[in-house]
Amino acid sequence: MRVFNGDQNEDDDRQMPRRKMVMTLKEAVERSQGHIKQLEPTFGKRVADWFSELLDKKIPVLIYCSVRTPQEQEELYAKGRTTPGPKVTNARGIPAQSLHIGGHAIDFVPLARTPTGEFVASWDDDKTYAICQKIAEKYNLRHLDWETPHLEDGTISGWRELVSPQKQEVKKEKISLVNKRPWSSR
Are 185 and 126 found together in one domain? Predict the structure, then answer.
């Protein structure tokens, strides 16, 4: 992969900057598969199936981010707040408010073929994003309206479920007790 106008380490793609990166399809697939391997296994299987379907349909994408540490997430949260640059996320790293931290989310970008047959990130390709998101629904991958390149585990209601699953169970139990004994006083 060759980077134009790049000043960041090319191996650090956790928050891919919007710059011209030229790569072969093989490089994009290998990089994406490396991210898929880092995911929580059941989520990773669904992402791998989604990714394979896209390739079968000749829709190339690059998965450029998967798992983040709480510190990495906190650094992203600081952008546009306490460090220079635009805001890139509303999710804190500490406490963990991102499904990336548990390996239950990915960020991807559609790829466009160049005249030389290589590929570049196509950040503004809304049509391809929409197609990818529609296919993702089949694999229970949820997209967020406010974060186009993001897909997360649709079997999880949100980051709060991962942070405190015991609280979720307590809420369910309390609700079920009230429903089973409507005559009891509250």
Answer: no
